[in-house]
Amino acid sequence: MLFLATKAFSQDSPGFKEYDQTTWRLYQQRQWDSLIIVGKQAMASGNDYQYLNARLGVAWFEKGNYRMASRYFGKALRLNQGDEFSREYLYFSMLYSGRSGGARSVTNGFSEAARQRLQLKSPVMPAYVYVELGPLNTNAINSLRDSYISGSDSIYGELNLPGNAFYFHAGGGFELGSFVTAYAAYSNLSLDRYERIELGDIDTIRRSYDFNQHEAYLNLSVEPVPGLRIVPSFHFIYNRSRPIIATYNQDSAAYNFHVKSYTNKDIATGIALYADFGLFDIALHGNYATLMNKTQTGGGAAITWFPSGNLDYWLKIHTSMLSEDGQHRWVTEPSAGVRIFPHVWAEASAAFGDLTRYVDETNFLLLNTDDKTTLRAQGVIYIPAFENVMFSFRYIYNRAEGLTWHYDLAGKTMLSETFDYQRHTLLGGIKWSF
Asked: Using CB atoms within 10 A of its CB, is residue 385 exposed (0-12), middle (13-18) or buried (19+)?
């Protein structure tokens, strides 16, 4: 381990000897606040060298500000790549601030002795499995189950609404070396849909049918240097359903009804770039998607602030623009997280704007529905059960607008009317790390 006293080292900057002796004394006395103040003064005077950066890194580390600590340990390493002391501290600074990818990147420079001492595993291995599942409940059907939908002309009315559903997700994380990780997952959404067709005042069709959706998701996280991460991602969706289709026969002046099988394939792909800047993370992303027979491009940016330099609490604001059919829509999503107990975290977020066919920054969340979603809010709590097992409990609230259709005799066309409904989702998850 590196001895942080300055040895045979020449320095021509003003006050070097005094600053070096003072910071070394404060380091030995564990006076971290004073060390930080004097260290900053030393650097402002032009005294910027490996040992001073390492001492400042330790001071911030001992204060629990791991992001500031990693900044100084990283600088010490740039001044001396053989600095095992700073490399080891940088590894733990990254790890304790939730930047596991950066921590893995640091391990690439460890000696074999350091790897054995820290009991580091092989860089190519399955890292964890994650399973999440639960019900989705909505009031969309309740409000319109028995309402009149044929309009003032009482000729024809129809609706097709989402019902309750069940969601299942299973995935695995993989470490593909010191710089690359991957997450691959499968999801299934089993949804009841409800349809009504009203001719005049008579309910001609009233039935439920299944809507089944299968999803495959993959992302790669490439972190060539600690604090800079590139994440390409891909999401494929396949769904099928068998609704009843109504057609009007002009010759017989009557409606015909038949069940039609539908299959739909949606994709979303994109790339995101994440960079650490001390207490802030900056993200930029671009997306391309084909959802519900619509082609969409999008892009956005996010900034996350860690006021205490660790995972005690954080604030994030994410804004994205979606372009579709020549129209542009903005979505803003603030979020926050807090450590409520030593090993228990809670997070909350809300997305505002027109979220119809919304795609998030890593293409994981896709709202592939034509119903206009105007608000999506969620809260989640993470509770560790054992050293390698983490439970999560998530609640999601969606506010959306559905449509009913009726025939307008004067205009000889179908007109739509909107109505509001809500969806409530409860998901339980478990992450098992190896």
From this structure: exposed
Distance of CA 251 to the CA centre of its chain: 55
Half-sphere exposure of 292 (CA within 13 A, CB side): 13
Question: Residue 93 corresponds to which tokens in the numbers above?
Answer: 């600074």
Here the CATH number for the domain that contains residue 113 is 1.25.40.10
Residues 357 and 413 in one domain: yes
pTM of the model: 0.87
- Whether residue 6 is contained in a domain is answered as no
pLDDT digits (tens, 9 = 90+) for 51-97: 999 999 999 999 999 999 999 999 999 999 888 999 999 999 999 99
pLDDT digits (tens, 9 = 90+) for 281-304: 999 999 999 998 899 999 999 999
Place of tokens 């979603």: 373
Q: What is the identity of the amino acid at 105? A: S
In angstroms, rounded to a whole number, what is the distance separating the alpha carbons of residues 282 and 303?
Answer: 5
Q: Measure Cα distances from 428 to 49, 241, 393 in Å.
A: 49, 27, 5
Count of CB atoms within 10 A of residue 310's CB?
21
How many domains does the chain contain in total?
Answer: 2
One-letter amino acid of 42: A
Instruction: Provide the domain limits for residue 49.
Output: 16-120
Report how far residue 215's alpha carbon sits from residue 202's, in angstroms, rounded to the nearest whole number: 39
